[in-house]
Amino acid sequence: MNIIRLLPLKGNLTLCQTRYLSCWSCGQDIKQLVENLFCSNCKSLQQPPKENYFKILGVSETYDQNENELAKKFKELQKYLHPDKFGNKPKEEQEISENYSSLVNESYNTLLNPLTRGIYMLRLSGKEIPEETEVKDQAFLMMIMEKNEEVENAETEEEIMKLNKENKELMNQLQKQVSQAFNDGDLKLVLKLLSQMKYYTSIDQQIRNLIRSKGIIR
Question: Is 152 found in the same domain as 102?
């Protein structure tokens, strides 16, 4: 049986320590990978570990994440994994680098976004948020409709940036509530809050598009 776990390395890298696993290239039993990803004998890049996104990036499995720390972990891993570095390697190793690099990209993009991070954590807990989640809170839905209208009617930079600030403040408050709900183990509340967050995320994207179309420099 293959057992894989991740351990911290110097410089905040992540070390994949493997027992009962052989290198796909040279066949040597691997007890420890060097530079976080490679066989210590033949230096071949190994297959990505079958771990969740948090462990792939080497960050704590929690809703609260530091964007700078995530970016740092991502860049450290991609420094070794970018497919351009494997142009002269065997085809199998090139494919491994592409798959591994893609997995790291997917992990980073998922955990960077508060909504997709929450949805992913729900999935790890065995829960799914439906694509079309019905929000029954009529007062909330009315507020969202009003916000959408305000964004559609916004013309001046002052109006747009005011809406941008208000929406980000609402999203930040919601993220704090989601974090607390995860800490409390209240997945039912998490599901409700993430369903609401989908609406705010949509408004945020509308405002971003408006800012770009107006050529507003932030």
Answer: no
